[in-house]
């Protein structure tokens, strides 16, 4: 039992570093920044005319997918 605790203890410390209050704050800041990129991308592309979107090779139905890729890379 003692050997198991010695082997797993460093892993627990590493996991704990990203799960504390600071880890939570960092994740919230990242999520907020990604949402801002998403909203800005949707807003800017939505303001373009169909002609301008066509010049870019885009269709209006692609806006949310493009914004998702810009924010989250999916």
From TrEMBL:
Residues 31-63 form the YjiS-like domain. InterPro entries: YjiS-like. It comes from the Bacteria. Pfam families: YjiS-like (PF06568). This is DUF1127 domain-containing protein. The lineage of its organism: Bacteria, Pseudomonadati, Pseudomonadota, Alphaproteobacteria, Rhodobacterales.
